[in-house]
Prior knowledge:
Blueprint (H helix, E strand, L loop, with lengths): L4 H36 L6 H17 L6 H27 L6 E7 L5 H12 L3 E7 L2 H9 L5 E8 L3 E2 L1 H7 L5 E9 L3 E4 L10 E4 L1 H6 L1 H5 L5 E4 L3 H11 L4 E5 L1 H6 L3 E5 L8 E8 L11 E8 L6 H11 L4 E9 L2 E11 L6 H12 L3 E9 L10
Parallel strand pairs: 1-2, 1-3, 7-8, 7-9
Antiparallel strand pairs: 3-4, 3-11, 5-11, 6-9, 6-10, 12-14, 12-15, 13-14
Amino acid sequence: MSLDLIEIRQQITQIDRSLLKLLSERHRLAFDVVRSKELTQKPLRDVEREQQLLQELVQFAENENYQLEAQYITQIFQKIIEDSVLTQQVYLQKKLNAEREQNIHIAFLGKRGSYSHLASRNYATRYQEQLVELSCESFQQVFERVQNGEADYGVLPLENTTSGSINEVYDLLQHTDLFIVGELAYPIKHCVLVSEQEDLSKIDTLYSHPQVIQQCSQFIQTLDRVHIEYCESSSHAMQLVAGLNKPNIAALGNEDGGNLYGLRVLKSGIANQENNITRFIVVAKNAVAVSPQIHTKTLLLMKTTQQAGALVDALTVFKKHNVIMTKLESRPIYGKPWEEMFYLEIEANTNDPDTQQVLAELKEYSTFLKVLGCYPSEIVKPVEIS
Length: 386
């Protein structure tokens, strides 16, 4: 006699709880690993070991005839590895920067429910700290609140996989004394949020932040005669739509934020790219020390002469010292037509003697050079297996 659905679900629940227990045990072992690496000063990540682990797990499942796809196994354990790496990273950073407060004030764009708010919450949770939320009406205000001491940190979007760089944030970095002290990636899942409407064709007005509108442009083009209302943030849009409570309007934002304002999802998966991710930076008044065992990035602000090949000459310094450059962005200098500042992101720790030599040589090819921040990256690139 076959089991009924209730019994099957009870079995699934028991298995899920057993999985949670095992995941918790594996998570705790990450602390034993990092304490061992702390003594030996080995890097936190061992990519070869991670690849070997994934290959062995896939092979083991095949030998045991578990009937699990290799991709399924890989995706699950890539996430488990990411948790282990970040757990170890936070352990080292908290020891190295022991003065860090338990109760931190974070400034972000928008109200509760904005992507910046959700990223801020994610950052605070990772460090197991209490978050005091300071919503801001502009990126400029985020910088100001950190500068004047109202906030310990500011969380700002720097680039998106769909719409590209956030130019306003780059421009503000050009005129600040704050330091970048961290970065994280947050998945962006846009959807159409409404109060009551059930028919998408009756929506004639969409409210959201310009970046969200840009990232959902292909979906918007499929709608007939829709009017766009730009808002300070996606959370402002959600609050506005909830307050107006009209059947012909909708907000574009995230489901979690919509729930805070009593909105429901009318349509999801509306971004131009399915894998839509925003990279956020964290700024503070003081720089942080970064463990040499951690994957570290440094963002530089540089200006060269306008002579032919000046930028190329500067970039050869990285090639000479085998330093990986992950980002090169140029922005105009206000008040100086046709002149540009360059933002260069490299995988390097400024406390490393080799990096200090790189910076010393870079000064020879530049008329201005400033370190905007040396910071641990919370973006763990998953390893692949052949």
